[in-house]
Amino acid sequence: MTLSGGNVAPRLRTDDMRLGAPFMIVLGVILLLIGWLVDLGLLVTIGTIVLVIGLVLFVLGAVGRPVGGRRFYW
Prior knowledge:
Blueprint: H1 20-38, H2 41-62
Helix pairs in contact: 1-2
């Protein structure tokens, strides 16, 4: 017998969240390459932004600094 009525959503573990920053870095590099190959400035800009955000989250997570209430982003 459960107190919540039986509808319990599964909890996400930190092991499930390991793709955050490295995924953003790879996505940023892919968008940059496609933007340069197709000569589309918008993709280059978005790729640069995603790459920088991914690198910042990776570095802050690597040094153990909590960002936005989360200690690890990968």
